[in-house]
Amino acid sequence: MGELQPSPALVRRESNDIKSELKNKYTWQQVAEKNSAKEAWIIVRDKVYDVTEWLWKHPGGKEMLLLHAGRECTHTFDSYHQFSDKSANILRKYEIGCLVGDSEFPTYLPDTGFYKECQRRVVAYFAKNHLNPKQNMPAMARTLTIFPVGLLSYLLMTGCFTSNVLVMLISSILHGCCVAIPLMHLVHDSSHGAITGNHKIWEFIGRLAMDWLNGLSFTSWNNQHIVGHHIFTNVAGVDPDLPVNFKSDIRRIVERQILQPIYAWQHLYLPPLYGLLSLKFRIQDFTHTFFSRTNGAVRVNPISLKDWMLLGSSKLFWIFHRIWIPLYVLNAPYFWLTFFLSEFVTGLYLAFNFQVSHISLTCQYQCHDRDYCNIPEEWAISQIKSSVDYAHGSSLVAFLSGGLNYQATHHLFPSISQYYLPEIAPIVRDVCRAYQIDYVVLPTFFDALKAHLLYLKVMGKNGKRVDVHMG
Ligand SMILES: [Zn+2]
Which partner for 386 in 24, 86, 182, 233 could form a disulfide, CB atoms 3.0-4.6 Å apart? Predict the structure, then answer.
């Protein structure tokens, strides 16, 4: 038997341990206990910081910081504080010790310079053109365009101005789209703090549009999308957007999952099931985030009575305006048909937009076939390789997808308004070229959809990745 060699990450951790011999030492489990407003600790680059005092002063708001309390935050910190050194200087003041032992989740390799170069060029672009990276006017303008169409389609589908069934069905489809588009514009940008520099505004917009108008939970979304998905994109076992239960999930996306015969048909049965996504989320907010206090592998920090009350009352309000009013006040004919059709369209719209960007033949997966691994890639490069862009240059696609057709750039710069992604994506692509990293851009949405469906087909039959040139 050959001698076992320690992994580079372990060697790095051991050398950090030696360097920090004189400091207070904490394990990730000890840090994980400090996850509330009483005591909030975070880990950045193997150093532990007590940021309790900073909670109320944090320019990004207390809520954003509490979401990350008790966790490893290196990549979150780097990707949300790109425009000034101020935050790094402030953070230094709160250092209390260092991390020892293992980490909770797989770790990435240190930055080789690629991400710093992307950041340097993008920051210079905004400075040179005197642009505000959190510009909110386009988001507001697009929402104002969608809102009247959404309202009119709601009135038509509930039979206010017509009794024509065909008009009601078409209006239901239109309304389903009008619900999805603001979620991908306003809510997505709000959750990333990318609308204005004022955290109160993005928290208000996020809760209003997601909790009150759509009966979904902004808290649940933030745990899944910000804490889980954005940091551990396509890392099997951590990214909540990938299957969590490797024995019984309805989808087979990674090789660690047991190959069941039914998966041979997943490219056919999953697309219609995507239509149930928004209804599924409304239930999962209770079961997965609030009751179980986990979202996939992500621990959910303590939930206050106020959060519970918000969850309950906003869901009741959604049932009131979405079901009770049309059914009992407007006496909407064919109500359940139009309701489910509209919900189905919203689910399809959201699911396809999210799925084609990461579950694709062109994307890379980490810990694909092993239970636990150290990721042999730096974080930013892994983001590029685990995402796929499409239809660059198309304003229509950018509008319909909420800028998610620039997915890789969004992952590197989550706090920049999605309306700048078309401008900064070429900068990121240039840096990728210099570092010989493949930044995949497919010509159209349909090419991205094809790559998604083909991936489902391949994983459903043999689980092996294949290289296919798309367009
Ligand atoms: Zn995002």
Answer: 233
Element (H, E) at 421: helix 421-434
User: 356 C-alpha to center of ligand 1: Å?
Assistant: 14
Cα–ligand 1 centroid distance for 42 (angstroms):
22
Tokens of 389: 């862009």
Q: From CA 49, how far away is CA 92, in angstroms rounded?
A: 8
Query: Beta strand pairing status for 25-26 and 95-99?
Result: parallel
- Cβ count near 190 (within 10 Å): 27
Q: Which distant-in-sequence residues (6+ apart) come within 8 Å of 467 by Cβ?
A: 361
pLDDT of 360-370, one tens digit each?
999 999 987 76
Residues 6+ apart with CB under 8 A from 311: 211, 217, 219, 285, 286, 290
d(CA 374, CA 169): 50
CA of 411 to the centre of ligand 1 (A): 7
In the beta sheet, which residues pair with residue 233?
A: none
Q: For residue range 280-327, list pLDDT tens digits in order.
A: 889 989 888 899 998 888 999 999 999 999 999 999 999 999 999 999
Distance 281 CA to ligand 1 centre (A): 17
C-alpha of residue 338 to centroid of ligand 1, in Å: 30
